[in-house]
Amino acid sequence: MPREQLKDLQLERLRKTLERVYHNVPFYRQKLQEAGFEPGDLQSLDDLQKLPFTAKQDLRDNYPFGMFAVPMSEIVRVHASSGTTGKPTVVGYTRSDINTWAELMARTLTCGGTTKNSVIQVAYGYGLFTGGLGVHYGAERIGASVIPISGGNTQRQIMLMEDFGTTVLACTPSYAIYLAEAMEEMGVDKNRLKLQYGVFGAEPWSERMRQEIEKRLNIKAIDIYGLSEVIGPGVASECQEQKGLHIFEDHFLPEVIDPVTEKPLPFGEKGELVFTSLTKEGIPIIRYRTRDITTLKAEVCSCGRTHVRMEKVMGRTDDMLIIRGVNVFPSQIESVLLEIGDTEPHYLLVVDRKGSLDELEVQVEVSQAMFSDKVKGLETLEKTIHHRIESLLGISAKVKLVEPHSIPRSEGKAKRVIDKRSL
User: In sequence order, what are the residues at sequence separation of 6 or more whose Cβ sits closer than 8 angstroms to the Cβ of residue 105?
Assistant: First the structure.
């Protein structure tokens, strides 16, 4: 769709969304009145900057259904976060929302290469988490054959992959690595598998991690993006060019802001991603602060798609560690470890405070071959990792090489950080 035509569509849909939340969601009516803005004041997309932000805590404060814009009789599905750090965030879908979501996930999977002839193994979790069902309905919309195995049960995953001729794998990137490792231990000949590519998301992962997955599974690794507060997976996806994720702008308005000043940033500058939904009925969202760090770029992709692209998420503002005044993202460390080699893509960052000084310990698994080598080789590897992290971050970290399989594996999102500090 030409950009000017797209902007007209976005403005029309934003007007409807503002009318919907102003008249049906007390939270938004109050926030808009405090900002001195009424739906009729919207003249152009530039007015978006005058609207208030929405944060995850706002959804928690209105738990469970206070952000819904329709009565429960019109809600046909409810999803929620795990609630591990407080009350879960709850989202509801009307029948129209479910249809939109399935269409967006069909786009996502088509971007990656899925067709009606594909056999897709959905190893994202099913249930209140949006990953499993989101991919499931999108794949069915295309007409692909779906294996709804959910997460876990790794040996069974591999058996079905061989026996059912899986061509597309859908899971978190950390679980993809775990599956590759399990295949190697089971002696599975990957050349006998029909796997062609995977769609991976739900956690930040580095380019090095992508290369590792592609090498170990002999597939193309496609990055997909979404979050339940916005709709679930299906907000953005890479195409086969792997040059950034196409944001489906006819349904979501993206911005990147400075997380401190909250001012919008131009294309190409790194900041926090913010989304406004344009078509959701159950729980429309206005300027939702995702906490994900990325950049936007407007150039048309070589695949021909004209929607704005976002760079691979570099980390989250709430995952960012501040150690001795330095901003540290786990994905930065991950990239260093995988670049050096002789290590496995399993690591853990342990942060503690001794006196007034922060200390960072990087625990990383070494390969079986390296672990069996001479002590001198391990010492050299340890010094190399220490030097590279210090060069990258400007702070010194204690490096601890640990035995293969000693860091817990994840069947969903990997846990990368233990912060023992009382801040």
Answer: 134, 135, 137, 138, 139, 141, 233, 234
3-state DSSP call for residue 180?
A: helix
**Phi, psi angle pair for 205, to nearest 5°:** -145, 145
| Of 115, 108, 121, nearest in space to 143 by CA | 115
CA-only gyration radius of the chain, Å: 22
- Residue located via tokens 């994720």: 245
Contacts 24+ apart (CB under 8 A), 5-11: 6/249, 6/250, 6/306, 6/307, 7/45, 9/250, 10/45, 10/249, 10/250, 10/253, 10/278, 11/42, 11/44, 11/45
Burial label for 363, CB within 10 Å (0-12, 13-18, 19+), is: middle
Whole-number pLDDT of residue 71: 98
Do 210 and 221 meet the contact criterion of CB atoms below 8 Å apart? yes
Cβ atoms of 51 and 286 closer than 8 Å: yes
Tell me the Ramachandran region of residue 316: left when phi exceeds 0, alpha when psi lies from -120 to 50, beta otherwise: beta
Long-range contacts of 189-192 (CB under 8 A, 24+ apart): 190/217, 190/218, 191/218, 192/162
CA distances from 353 to 171, 197, 322, 323, 331 (A): 35, 43, 12, 10, 22
- Hey, CA dihedral for 267, 268, 271, 273, is it positive or negative? positive
pLDDT at 84: 62
Write out residues in the chain with pLDDT < 70, as ranges: 83-85, 373-374, 422-423
CA angle 267, 268, 274 (to 5 degrees): 60
Q: How far is CA 130 from CA 103, 140, 145, 219, in A?
A: 15, 16, 20, 25
Angle of the 95-112 helix axis to the 130-142 helix axis, nearest 10: 70
Q: How far is residue 40's CA from residue 34's CA, in Å, rounded to a whole number? A: 15
**Edge-to-edge order in the sheet of strand 357-366:** 398-402, 357-366, 343-354, 417-419
Cα gap 283→267, rounded to integer Å: 28
Integer Cα distance of 333 and 400 in angstroms: 13
Torsion of CA 32, 36, 37, 41, to 10 degrees: 170
Q: What is the pLDDT of residue 423?
A: 57
The answer to whether residues 17 and 284 touch, using CB atoms and an 8 Å cutoff, is yes
Residue 281 DSSP label: S
